[in-house]
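ok here's Carboxymuconolactone decarboxylase family protein, seq below lol
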Amino acid sequence: MDKTTHDKGLDIRKAVLGEAYVENALKTADDFNKPFQDHVTEYCWGAIWGREDLPRKTRSMLNLAMIAVLNRPHELRAHLKGALTNGVTRDEIREIFMQVACYAGMPAGVDSFRIAREVFAELDKT
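and the structure came out like this:
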């Protein structure tokens, strides 16, 4: 593991997903999934999200589309919050999910809109 890339990834991961979310993921890691958590932090967040060629907002928008198409509701919830943190607006999220529905199918769009509305409602309560 490259400690510099890992530490950079940890900083980015916390900035996008929130410190509490990341700390919980790391705190609950065990012998089985700790290597995976380290890999996610170093590779996804450090080596990829840490690249300078795309702004975080753009990366968030791409993630929303890809995660919606892959039907990963837990990750979609986390990345919806991260996208808002990175400056993606609710209007832009709507348009991303319209695009998802068009190109990946209406069921993917329906689920994405439903999950986004739930996340927005949760956030609006706080």
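fwiw Residues 65 and 96 are 6 Å apart (CA to CA). kinda neat tbh
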